[in-house]
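# step 3/5: fold
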Amino acid sequence: MPAPILTLQDVRLRIGDTELLDGVELFVEPGERLCIVGRNGAGKSTLLKIAAGMMEPDSGRRFLQPGITASYLPQEPDLSGYPDTLAYVAAGLSHGGDESRAYYLLGKLGLNGNEPIASLSGGQARRAALARVLAPRPDILMLDEPTNHLDLPAILWLEEELKAMKGALVLVSHDRRFLQNLSRATVWLDRGRSFRLDQGFGAFEAWRDKLLEEEEVERHRLDRKIAAEEHWVRYGVTARRKRNVRRMALLAGMRQNRREQRKSLGTVSFTVTEADKAGTCVIAAETVSKAYGDRAIVKDFSTRILRGDRIGIVGANGAGKTTLINLLTGKLKPDAGAVTIGANIVMAALEQIRALDPDKTLQETLTGDSGDKLDVGGERRHVMSYMKDFLFAPAQAKTPVSVLSGGERARLLLAKVLAKPANFLVLDEPTNDLDLETLDLLEELVDEYPGTVLLVSHDRDFLDRTVSAILFAEGDGRFVEYAGGYTDMIAQRGLGVTDKPAARKESKPAREKTAAKAKLTFSQQHELKTIPGEIEALEKTVAVLHGKLSDAGLYARDPAGFADLSAKLTEAETQRAALEERWLELELKREASSG
């Protein structure tokens, strides 16, 4: 067994009243692939800084073998003192290093080297810093959340680059698939202690659950007292993971339904079971196009998003994902084509720009300064109870937003958005800054959300666990729908995300675009005006029938009457669904002809 080239022994660090690191150990062998995992606030980034020699612990020993080179990527790099990105990256090369490598890395990360440092966005600065630490091919590469601000093609490229490197890799990341593909050993930070597993992240969660279960048994045996919120946060992880099996089975069924729907778009038979729900069709887009100047952002795009769908939008940065969301949600008017939003749609959105008042407390943020209670899904709940759903301890209620970590702020914003009454949830990069436990929670929230979900994400594992279909940006403004998650999409394309498919034959919707421009006849115009009234009448009928059938003793008293009412309810719901479809068809035709 080779001697470690980097060793941390009995590392201790106290921050305020918290013993962040309490006797932590870490050793890195030549060529090792090691990931560090743990909840937000567990000390992952702090430990990485100590390993990189950027921070001194209160006590403990750090040893780096003489002659070993190390590079470290922080979450917030400092690029000051350099005129442009090329100068910054080239400065990271060893003496006499090849500057062409700096150009190569910058190009792969979407930069050209001429960008002035002063004008860089946060994402561009992170990309430049990543190029700089990769440039010298160090013996040990330490990366803190390297996939932040990277799109899917860049993440896949980075994976291959790291797999090919000869040096050791120490990695902190929330991206499960990234960790699974790269790690061969795992260090878990939990309550100040470190635990090592000599296997990659793929084996970590089951191993962690086993350790927690053994600790729980020991806790009962010794009758130790653990704070209730700490117990819930820790051991709720195991319960959530066990529910993953059920969730994935349900998701498989949803994906199969999606495939069947897309085989015969627009001819699906719908059944509405609750009068207060959104309409069957949430969004319908017909040959929608949007361009800025000569550049087509979205071109001849058609889809139908149905109630209960979970749709992911995937593609490179700048491919038009946010533009497509804005078109589908009515924030942006298309240059051509029509978008129709269904009846009774109430939208809640988690956008990439996440504004929270830093001076307000968690309680004030969630309740809107209105005491200690809030409305969640029509139910009045105490803020302390609701906070626990998002892994906050009651003691944090009076904590200012300004002192929260990035992951905690993301969690708080999720709690705020999901408290709003809505049946259509729009999530733009919801996994940024979330730790693995919070990702578990978010997946469960998406799974249990009663409405429709539209999300943008570069997280392959998250997509596989949550969505029933993917809209993929193929390039040149074209978005193609694939049933299933990320892995299903790759299988159906038969290509990687950076490869472009061969030119396709003109699709049926495109061939019929001219026909769709035809104006409504007089009878169709009359039909379009009268259908809403007919739908409203059927909704009243459905409500009355539901009321009669809710009588718990009806079936026992009058089985024949119960059967008759059930048949009438089915007929009324079927008629209403057919009218909704007809209204949508006519409304799309009207909008297309007027465009």
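# step 4/5: annotate
The longest helix spans residues 228-263.
# step 5/5: archive (pending)
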